[in-house]
Amino acid sequence: MSGHSKWATIKHKKAAQDAKRGQLFTKLSRLVSVAAKEGGSPDPAANYRLRLAVEQAKKANMPMEKIQRAIDRVFGKGKAALESVELEVFGFKGIGIIILALTDKKQRLLGEVKSILNRYGGSLGQSGSVTYMFKKVVILELEKRLDDEKVLELADEGVVDFKRDKDKTVFFVEIEKAKEVREKVEGLGLESEKVGYIPVSTVALNEAEWQRLQSLVEELESLDDVYQVFTNGVRS
User: Fold this and answer.
1) Is residue 69 classed exposed, middle or buried when 0-12, 13-18 and 19+ CB atoms within 10 A define those classes?
2) Does residue 20 surpass a pLDDT of 80?
3) What's the predicted TM-score (pTM) here?
4) Which residue, of 34, 169, 186, 227, has the fewest CB within 10 Å?
């Protein structure tokens, strides 16, 4: 019986790992498709955003055929009618949320988002009702932690904000200055570049509210069509 129990535990663990890998590949596929669409070319050599997205997918051991399929969804013979969608959402306590998605079925996406929001006391907003709480930026993510001197060196180049952990540095850059900053950090381990948002006004949350917001964001990010979620809720 103990052997059977161990086997069942291993099978359960493998199933969980496979599910997690599947979710990661789905997200990476979306990022590859978005990069191909935004960069306007299926050739990574001519589309630097696609090149970075493909490299990121390869590092996660995503099979090349899946990567190519993601590119073909935008440029292949059987390409899907993919639409870039930006949803503005009000969460509980007036939190602003922006959802970026790439979908071939917008109504399905809206239904999925509404279903999640209903459970968290949120609602869809109209165009412009939430974006004024944010600034649109280019997000440059490096696969290394830069020292203070290097960060300060880039601070006058249009960098709006940055964050670091033990092995990453992320810069939030004014869109007009993104090309200049990218050229300066490309040799420092640039891993990804994407358009996103940072809040210009925030909503303070206590610990319980913060955890609730994290759960909401996780559920939104779990949707296949969604590739980025931004909020202005902050832990107080």
Assistant:
1) middle
2) no
3) 0.80
4) 186
DSSP string, 17-42: HHHHHHHHHHHHHHHHHHHHHHHT-S
Burial letters 165-195, b for 16+ CB under 10 A, else e = eeeebbbbbbeebbeebbeebeeeebbbbbe
Task: Put residue 174 in one of left, alpha, beta given phi > 0 → left and psi -120 to 50 → alpha.
Answer: beta
192 in Cβ contact with 178 (< 8 Å): no
Q: Using one digit for the tens of pLDDT, what is the confidence trace for 144-177?
A: 898 888 888 887 778 889 999 888 999 999 989 8
Q: CA 45, CA 203: separation in Å to the nearest integer?
A: 42
Question: What one-character DSSP code corresponds to residue 78?
Answer: T
List the domains of the chain with CATH numbers.
2-75 (1.10.10.200), 84-236 (3.30.70.980)
Give the tokens for residue 190. 């640039």
The Cα–Cα gap between 51 and 32 comes to 9
Among the listed residues 130, 71, 74, the one whose alpha carbon sits nearest the alpha carbon of residue 99: 130
Q: Are 137 and 160 in contact (CB under 8 A)?
A: yes
Cα 115 from Cα 38, distance rounded (Å)? 29
Element (H, E) at 231: strand 226-231
